[in-house]
UniProtKB/TrEMBL annotation:
<keyword id="KW-0812">Transmembrane</keyword>
<feature type="transmembrane region" description="Helical">
    <location>
        <begin position="235"/>
        <end position="260"/>
    </location>
</feature>
<feature type="transmembrane region" description="Helical">
    <location>
        <begin position="272"/>
        <end position="300"/>
    </location>
</feature>
<dbReference type="Pfam" id="PF08449">
    <property type="entry name" value="UAA"/>
</dbReference>
<feature type="transmembrane region" description="Helical">
    <location>
        <begin position="194"/>
        <end position="215"/>
    </location>
</feature>
<protein>
    <recommendedName>
        <fullName>Adenosine 3'-phospho 5'-phosphosulfate transporter 2</fullName>
    </recommendedName>
</protein>
<feature type="transmembrane region" description="Helical">
    <location>
        <begin position="54"/>
        <end position="72"/>
    </location>
</feature>
<keyword id="KW-0813">Transport</keyword>
<feature type="transmembrane region" description="Helical">
    <location>
        <begin position="170"/>
        <end position="188"/>
    </location>
</feature>
<keyword id="KW-1133">Transmembrane helix</keyword>
<feature type="transmembrane region" description="Helical">
    <location>
        <begin position="118"/>
        <end position="140"/>
    </location>
</feature>
<feature type="transmembrane region" description="Helical">
    <location>
        <begin position="84"/>
        <end position="106"/>
    </location>
</feature>
<keyword id="KW-0472">Membrane</keyword>
<dbReference type="InterPro" id="IPR013657">
    <property type="entry name" value="SCL35B1-4/HUT1"/>
</dbReference>
<comment type="similarity">
    <text>Belongs to the nucleotide-sugar transporter family. SLC35B subfamily.</text>
</comment>
Amino acid sequence: MSAKYGLVGYNSSRKHISISIPSSTEVMSPHIKSVEELRVLGINLSNLSAPTQFFICVAGVFLFYLVYGYLQELIFSVEGFRPFGWYLTLVQFGFYSMFGLVELQFTQDKRRRIPGKTYMMIAFLTVGTMGLSNTSLGYLNYPTQVIFKCCKLIPVMIGGVFIQGKRYNLTDVSAALCMSLGLIWFTLADSKVAPNFNVTGVMLISLALCADAVIGNVQEKAMKLHNGSNSEMVLYSYSIGFIYILGGLLCVGGLGPAVAFCSEHPVKTYGYAFFFSLTGYFGISFVLALIKLFGALVAVTVTTGRKAMTIVLSFMFFTKPFTFQ
């Protein structure tokens, strides 16, 4: 196949594949107007400079995910709710699907661009990372969970190497190692002062990180290859994920008790979950924009900086033991 369509020659030891943007004289898919178009929550940011796009996305991530983190801990502070982390994820996926469907109605092109098989894989990984992350809060306190998620940069870098063939310099690797040392130090301190530090929680959040190692890179590759929109990505990946979780809860019998509990506390469960999902949807829209523009590694680095602020707010608003370490 000709190199102008994005495929370069093969050698005997390794395949090299690169994706190129067709020139104005080459034929593009008729439903893709421009590979440079970027919309976040229906707002076209394409005409802005790259630094401006970056800082707008960063501001959106910090603003909405700080509120998201507060609401997440607030929900799990409701007495008796901790065993229902997977049900919260189900409700969250349902809200995300509805929000994505509403946003998609305001776009001119409503056709799906990314293949269904890719969405099925992204949905499975999203269910893993969000479901296991929510469930881990039943065993870990919130700052410990956040610190573990800060280590997400490392698996994302590893996934970038194997999935997209990326290479990282010494500065990137050093930053990742420093983050790991901070994770170990904080976890050791938490194991001494917090009674709810639990090996099961550590295993759950570690599995969530494994899913994170793949999902960001798969999203980046799919969105750049097919020029998929943020609303399309959210709608299809989370609606398929909703079906996965619903089937799982029905199989293990976990749906009935969760519905019964939430029916007794509708405001503190469904009410909080609505605003929790709304801020999360706004936040993920900006994260997907960062992934599409600057790559998965930059997006994860930004969300890691946001998590540092979340930890500070968590200690300010929710009483927890705190040591110098």
